[in-house]
Amino acid sequence: MQFSRRRFLAATGTGLALAPLPAWAQGHGMAHGGRHRLPKGPLIPAGFGVLTGQQIDLTVADGLREVAGRRGLGVAVNGTVPGPLLRLKEGDEVTLRVTNRLHQDTSIHWHGLLVPFQFDGVPGVSFPGIKPGETFTYKFPLRQSGTYWYHSHSGLQEQSGHYAPLIIDPAEPDPIQSDREFVLLLSEFTAMDPHQIFDRLRTGEGYFNRQKTTWTDGYRLSGAERRMWAQMRMPPTDIADVSAPTYTYLANGLPALQAPEFLFRRGERVRLRLINGSAMTFFNVRIPGLKLTVVAADGQAVKPVTVEELQVAVAETYDLLVEPDGTAFSIVCEAMDRSGMALATLTTTPGQRAPVPPLRKAPLLTMADMGMNHGDDGHDDGGGKARTSMDGMPMRDISLLPPDVRVGPGIDMVSMAPADKMGDPGIGLRDVDHRVLTYRDLAALVPNKDTREPGRLLELHLTGNMERYMWSFDGQMFNAVSDVPIRFAWNERVRVKLVNNTMMAHPIHLHGMFFELVNGQSPAHQPRKNIVTVQPGASASFDLTANEPGDWAFHCHLLYHMHGGMMQIVTVMGPEGTK
User: Fold this and answer.
1) DSSP run (H or E) holding 76
2) Cα–Cα dist 286/436, whole Å
3) Pairing of strands 341-347, 70-77
4) In this predicted model, what pLDDT tens digit does every residue of 445-497 receive, in sequence order?
5) Strand, helix or coil at 440?
6) 302 half-sphere exposure, CB direction, 13 A CA radius
7) Under DSSP, is residue 387 helix (H, G, I), strand (E, B) or coil?
8) How many CB atoms lie within 10 A of CB 271?
9) What is the dihedral of CA 524, 525, 528, 532, to 10 degrees?
10) DSSP 323
């Protein structure tokens, strides 16, 4: 019997057509207008404990958080932010009972885990959500190992603290050997209500940008370049939608002044399980004085590659090996726009600290980040005057778009030359004097099982309007395409090409499956991931074997971009057309 998502939602009373917003976009206890009253009671502590076993109980509740002297709403799992580390075992079948003590629906998505789609945890897509006072039981076998995390997929709860680490130990001996290991979970805190942040982004997308160009700034821009950016009405410092001081950057729930300590003994090989559990922040991570050997990406082992810095996109995980030959080292996790940092310390002695380097100069966007080239004239596209650069190049040449992209007010830019940038280390790291990880460096340690040539190419365009803060795939926001999913046949081999027609880097996440990055490696060793960052004005491709039946979310993992519409549904039909 064929089982459609429309029938599933109708049966559970969560049909998207009946709600003013999709279920996944509903609020988390906000009063009218997106404001909240801070709860009373003890403060939610930072940091996390460890839970193991095949049966685990989790409780979601709100409370008050205080970070660096500021207070705001917190959504905690088992009373802490981050929630408890789940340490599980490959091959086990786990039962996870999640009780909702909030006044609103909640959910948990097991990021990167291969699970039956009804346990993926996306309200309105794969299950109805968890109502206040109810308990939902997730039950599934663990079919993989590695470093992962879990978080809410309801409203904007993730921004308020509903996230936590998850490790699955392998059934066989771990190919990654170390003497000691630590989990480093990066995130942000804000005292603002997340819905208020979203409202302000909608009314003025540059509201939180505190690094704008001025007459007296120190940015290395010529007069001609400044005029060019002014004519486009875009600041070259528009790197992150939300940053410090609105955000305080956290390592394991703690701000830089309370940096967590990781104690080691000299001569040990230390494994760092690095998780970016933030809502909106790309982090550039380095340990001054140490080399970093990357051994896993998104939970999947890769051939070791040694670098001195790497950019970790929102929701990505990396496993790193380091061999400290001193007594103390600072783990510096600098926000991509360099407005602030999270910090941790590797040390042999409690309380001992290493020097912390100052924030580097803020990076600037270039015309390459706009996907621009020369040779075309600006023109009116029928929807108003096209925004152009100083040289008259159109920023919205819709003739460059394929016919299945819906042109409208949700698109204010079209990339002129979206080149593959798998070798790009990321904004701010292109001119440093040391080696930085790129996607081209990654190669699967264990050969891929399916190396068939893709049977078809699917091209999707990442589209947006910065001024209106509208985000979409192919010009269509999620609430407009929720019943027109991307369809894959059972076991179909597809190459997906993502074209970024915006000036923002987008970490695109596919639920339920791994894909292989088309990064120059042989098909057998293309790295398996579930997140790929598509650089501004660029493209990125991956190969996918559609062998996980069901409905799966596919979205930008920048929380406010997903909330603003950059989400789709992927439907994989099971054998003989069933799910």
Assistant:
1) strand 70-77
2) 9
3) unpaired
4) 999 999 999 999 999 999 989 888 999 998 888 875 556 899 999 999 999 99
5) helix
6) 29
7) coil
8) 23
9) -120
10) -
